[in-house]
Amino acid sequence: TFTHTEETAIPYLAGWVARKVSLCDTCRDTLTTKSNVTEYQRAFLNHKEYAEDGLYKPSDNLVKVIHIAESEFRSKFNDLKSCSGIAQRLFSEIENAINFEFLYEKHPQHATALARSIIAKYVTMRIHYELKFENAAITKVSTMTHRKLKILKHE
Asked: How far is Cα 93 from Cα 98, in angstroms, rounded to an integer?
């Protein structure tokens, strides 16, 4: 389950993915929308909106894909993080969970490459941030322990 804040961040992440993986104008049009996004999606997007070339408004299909990818990532990451080939394993798990039919309907020429690129970009980004947060937590505990030891030693 996702918190309200996490739910509103998913469209932002989907827009980021669309911007990073679009191979051509048709790819971009398949992954984005020109219409107004829902109020729910707008909550985070409005705070991050900038130049026309920057933030993309994701299509409903891409938001659903990223939502599924995040659910799969969360359910599998802790079990896989001590394994070798974590990125490839997460990629496979997520790929098996997502139906990319909308890509084949709207843009069959790039559908396979686009689907793989979406998953790869998302997995790479999520692993990066998951490890960044874990490292920060380890550093914080290490710093606190070091401070406590200095106090105990009267340094």
From this structure: 9
